[in-house]
């Protein structure tokens, strides 16, 4: 398996523009997680899905952020409008299921820069 | 709240064993202990996880205290490529991973 695939790997955009990050989980994994990493706040869980259904989005910072999982092999994280403080590395991860028993596998991340 | 306590940083000489400690004094009987690491400019990488008994895999060993309130990740021979931030995590029930600050391991040639 190719592992978790994320695109784009790098994104530079201007403040106010819409940004869409994409993720393809490992085949057969039923849970998908979006994280954000900054120097100040470390790795933060934004939202996670189980069987394509959002389970917990309490980590989503504002209404400007939205995430979808239309099928088991694809998810998007959208920021509209983007702001400079959204600059971070965004990671997608997948797992057989959430919780204590199963390990998570992470993608390489998307480095977002908002100017 | 990562619910674990780790030293901020540790240093090791190359080809020496490394013991990375973690305290999780409030762990419940069904919580697994997970270890992940993050190499520079990469995403976190699964290392190992266990419940009660010690666990070994090709990357590392996990030694879990008898009372399960602490654990130690053991890298048997540190290499320069093992320099990373190591995260000890104990997810509960169906909750996903919550990352703390981890331990930054430096390996000296």
Question: What's the structural blueprint in terms of helices and strands?
Answer:
The complex is a heterodimer of chains A (115) and B (109).
Chain A: E1 5-7, E2 10-13, E3 19-24, E4 31-38, E5 42-50, E6 53-56, E7 65-71, E8 74-79, E9 88-95, E10 105-106, E11 110-114
Parallel strand pairs in A: 2-11
Antiparallel strand pairs in A: 1-3, 3-8, 4-5, 4-9, 5-6, 7-8, 9-10, 9-11
Chain B: E1 9-13, E2 18-23, E3 33-38, E4 45-50, E5 55-56, E6 61-64, E7 70-75, E8 84-89, E9 103-108
Parallel strand pairs in B: 1-9
Antiparallel strand pairs in B: 2-7, 3-4, 3-8, 5-6, 6-7, 8-9
| Overall 3D shape of chain B | globular
Straight-line N-to-C gap of chain A: 36 Å
Strand order of the largest sheet of chain B: 1-9-8-3-4
* Shape call of chain A: globular
Low-confidence stretches of chain A: none
- Could you tell me the strand content of chain B as a percent range? 35-45%
Tell me the number of strands of chain A.
11
Largest interface: A-B, 24 and 23 residues
Summed up, the helix count of chain A is 0
Count of β-strands of chain B: 9
Report the C-alpha radius of gyration of chain A, rounded. 13 Å
Largest sheet of chain B: 5 strands, mixed
- Low-pLDDT regions of chain B: none
Oligomeric composition of the shown chains: heterodimer
The sequence of SSEs of chain A as H and E is EEEEEEEEEEE
Can you give the helix content of chain A as a percent range?
under 10%
The averaged pLDDT of chain A comes out at 95
The computed structural class of chain B is: mainly beta
The chain-level mean pLDDT of chain B equals 92
Task: Give the C-alpha Rg of chain B.
Answer: 13 Å
Compute the number of helices of chain B. Answer: 0
